[in-house]
Design goal:
Blueprint (H helix, E strand, L loop, with lengths): L2 H17 L2 H23 L11 H4 L2 H23 L2 H7 L4 H9 L1 H23 L13 H28 L2 H27 L11 H6 L9 H13 L11 H24 L3
Helix pairs in contact: 1-6, 2-4, 2-7, 4-7, 4-8, 4-9, 6-12, 7-8, 8-9, 8-12
Amino acid sequence: MNGGRVFGVLLRNEWFKARKRIAFWMALGFFTFGTVGTHAYPFFQRSEGFNLPGAWGSVFGGDSGTLLIFSALTLLLIATTEFTWRTARQNVIDGLSKSQWFWGKSLLLPILGFAFIGVQISIPAVLALIRTDFGAVDGPLVPASVFAATGGLVLAFLSVAALAFFLSLAIRKTGAALGVWVLWVGPVEFGTISPLVTRYLPDYADWLDYMPWRNALQLLDFRSYDAPTFERFVAAAEAAGRSAPSAFDPTWHLVAAAAWTALFIGTAFIWFRRRDL
């Protein structure tokens, strides 16, 4: 069987497993409901700026943090049950190599990313499109900055989900893996490491923003990718008598997100290969 055919079989298998899991549909359903609720109000109120291209700033932002949480935890719940139910061992007995099983399971990242990011972007985009007066638009409905912000969101998702993927294959117990992931992205990064470094090594505190979860959060603000949106934000700050923020360059955070993704998946592969099923 050639590589392309194997990839197709693995992708179909993972999609089949994912869509049979109630955890997938519940998480995606709650996230969809929340996304609709967030953008329904400005849609029905015909809020100023809720049209294209003006609405893109509300598509990317605070709600993206919820996307990272829902999608990563969904991946963790789906992946760990492969060991609880012994389906990982059975798949290898049925003919898959351990490497094939691993890379097949890693396809959960693009599957879940496509589902959750698709909801995050498509729902407000469609609602804003309905409210768009095409005769008044003087630029592209989808500027290049949207694609840049989407790329940042994808890398943020991959880095956080890859951490969940690593913990799933390393711990193999749903409750324990879930607990470690929650502890890491909350108390550890913000409540333990950050205060210690800030207090005892203040000159080295800048690297804290490159830790997995904090780094991902740096990639979610549309103002980092769209100059007009950032200029409007600066003008609003100055009008309110606040100091104008400086421009933010996400380049190194994008690099860090890619590096974290590769590190977590690579480490998970080496660890998985060395352990019995």
